[in-house]
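Marked as duplicate of an earlier ticket. Keeping the data here for the record.
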Amino acid sequence: LMANMTTDHHIGLLKKAGNAVVLSGDRHAGEISALSLGKKRKLYDVTASSFNRPSTLDGEENRLRVGRREKNPNFGMLDIDWKGRTVGMRLFDGNGAGISSAQTSF
């Protein structure tokens, strides 16, 4: 998703919003990506999938990836702290072991 969203128009809208988190799936792989929007703001993309059919693709490039890409069964979790105004993003393999994580404020 991240590679397809980097048009000037979409990024311009997101820069006005501050930090943003996009959730996506159905890629048969999981990863967290972060794009700097300037002024300490970032756009995060959390892709998590799937339990039913792992990816057969290896070596998919993503210069914005945080941590590693998981092609085997995986799932994601958001930890929202409404009082502290933070969002924690975590990606796990099918056994529940942590793969990658990121945190941002809102």
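See parent ticket for discussion. The beta strands are 20-24, 30-38, 41-47, 65-70, 74-81, 86-93, 98-105.
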